[in-house]
Fold this sequence. Notes:
Elements: E1 4-7, H1 17-32, E2 36-41, H2 51-63, E3 70-74, H3 79-92, E4 95-98, H4 102-114, E5 140-143, E6 152-155, E7 159-162, E8 172-174, H5 182-192, E9 197-201, H6 208-218, E10 224-228, E11 231-232, H7 244-250, H8 256-261, H9 266-275, H10 288-294, E12 305-306, H11 309-322, H12 325-337, H13 347-356, H14 363-370, H15 382-388, H16 391-403, H17 412-427, H18 431-443, H19 451-458, H20 460-473
Parallel strand pairs: 1-2, 2-3, 9-10, 11-12
Antiparallel strand pairs: 4-5, 5-8, 6-7
Amino acid sequence: MTVRVRFAPSPTGYLHVGGLRTAIFNFLFARHHGGKFILRIEDTDTERSTQAAVDQILDSLRWMNISWDEGPFFQSQRMDLYRAHLARLLESGWAYRCYCPAQELDKKRKAAEAEKRQYKYDGACRHLDPKADPAGRPFVIRFKMPEKYPDHFDDLVLGRIPIDEERLDDWILARSDGMPVYNFCVVVDDADMRITHVIRGNDHVANTPRQILLYQAFGYITPKFAHIPLIHGPDGSKLSKRREAEYKKLGMSVSVQEYARMGYLPHALFNYMTRVGWSAGDQELFSLDEFVQKFDLDGVGKASGIMNPEKLKWVNAQYLKAEDDRALAEKLLPFLAEKNIVAPADSRLASIVACLKPRSNTLAELADKAVVFFIAPTTYDEKSVRKFWTPEARAWLSRLVELLPGMPISDEAAMEERFKKLAEEFAGGNMGKIAQPLRLALTGSTASPSIFSVMNILGKDECIARIRRAIAELPTLG
């Protein structure tokens, strides 16, 4: 048997991180078993589905390097297949037309609510002659529940799931406008696409008994089901689009596309999201090949996965450090452009990346720190000025302006040795007393990478210009 799985998002909005993890689990399961990963777009909700959402979902999957083997298939283009299957059920007696007025059903539903009992359709049209078709009367198509049906189904993640007969009645397969409903379309599609394993969020557990009955009615092989736990926010509550502004302050989002905008690397997000709800021992970071080799449903837990933005930043930081400097420089360009900085991905930018990436969690953060290499500071950190901008510091920097033209600024090791001697001369051997004022003059802050790396990247002329400007603008402080 060839494993065949599918990811079937609805194009009513952006790709949610929960949907992303479902896609990842299906993708890895298929690759692990040498199977096929199918992409299906469930766009039968014509009022809410948009082409923009379709494009965004596909772009997000491509950005994440999640490739599909077949598709994308669109449910809106498969209506003839659904109608043929509805006709099969009507002809075989597994379905019937229901002419009950909506107002009448609504009254019965409200009565059940008032009596605090589960509403179930009473089967009023169940025994009508199928050949009798009252002209002009609208109807829905209902599934005819069998007298006997399974009392449970087995789930590859959750185990044995009892089937609650109180929640099963002759449910609607197609609405009065002829549009088939989700639970019907998904079974027809999965059977037609020969899906062997349905891996999806556990919010679909309640749909499964009805779908199993439809497989039986059609005589199709029922796939194996694996319902994975949902993803919750840092506080343990369900992720909500309404809290997006709050999430962004923490460095996370419910939208996959936002992670690209925030400067996360796709392989870092892939790594993190796979580990939310799946375990393979103590290992934290995986290559794609390692994921493919190790991933299986045995490692999926039953408890909800919790988003931890600090852990996500840590994972991304590890991938930033491991990334090639030139490649990272290319990825940094759009973030610099947002700051009106146009720079080629050359050796200088690669040097800036190498200097800053050990201290950065995201590309956006790296870009923030890179600005100082392109634009001289116009303000200086007040606390640092009060602490380090002393008359002695100004005197030292004035002397440094004279010495810099003859210094080996491109040899950072040699510069460090030279500065140790200068520290003896100007600060009694205290490197901080000469390095911190210099950092302040060059970057506007005392929080910077190696001062020798900064000087090397800026070059002698720019260093001299910035030191002179600081001396001119901060003459009386300290």
